[in-house]
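Case study 2.
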Amino acid sequence: MSTFLRKLFGDLIGLVFFIAAAAKLMDPVGTGLIVDAYLLNLHLDFLRPCSLAIGLVLSMSEAVVSVGLLTGTFRQFFAWAATAMILFFTLVSVWLVVADPDMECGCFGEAIPLTHTQTLIKNLALCLFCIPAFVPYSNLGYARAHRYVAFGIGVFLMLCYGVFFLVFNPLLEWSELRPSHTIVPEGEAVDERWEYPILPIWDENGEDCSYLAMEGDVALISIYDVDALDSSDKARIASFSQDAVNVGYNAVLLAAGQVAIPGMDTYYADYRKVITMNRSNAGVSFIHDGYIIGKVSFHNYPSFEQMEELHETDAVEAFINSATHRSVALQAFALVFLAVIILV
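Prediction:
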């Protein structure tokens, strides 16, 4: 097998690992939900509290292997590591096809949904790629010294990438509750009740209050882990909600459990709906007449002046501005990463 073909197949495997890792690290909370679904279906309930940690470790492992393969460093180690991971994923995909659980494979997070059969075919193809890329494993050669520098910088960038999205919201979302989408069921009026609302909200008496998120300008504060909030967090939420009301927003507190925020009524929704609404615990989603304009994390609440500016901006323009900022940030990361891998 020529050196060119070995490198080509190795790079293809590295690229697949990179796309998978980048998609998962962009939404670490969502990756934790995918891991949780696996553990639930495999009856490994005792591991479910560690779903987020397991998802992060798995994603970073894929990231490190991808950078290693693309830079050509530590070739024998990463050849064996990639082969072992591919074989493991293939066994999991066989289980998915046989057991057919009602869940996504999560190979690429929510970015590229695959059926169980498609997942198996993809993994079998990667198994075949390992033969020309790595066999024989004892004769893979060594990288030039400067490639190890690229490896170190690449791993550091991927780590920063994952930590950033663990703290802040994903730059891109693929759920039905992503920015630019409406939470008003198609063909329905805002003041009607629906059998299957997109974002079902109820009060403490179980009454349907879904309309609260669909009328006018709404600052929807969503809390999926009420136990993670301390008194200072609750005070910050209360202060922000008062600012939002003074600007002209209807501040709605949506929680997946019992929580008391001074000056606010608490409304409830299913845990997965709350965490889909905003990946940040106590994050804020700005909604205009049922359309989601943008989302901010708990660590990035806008100031009073910023909310005034957003409130006075046309809803379409506000969404375009938000989407542009996210796109530029994502492209900047991609360009920096590729420059490191190719040029260093």
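The first helix runs from residue 3 to 26.
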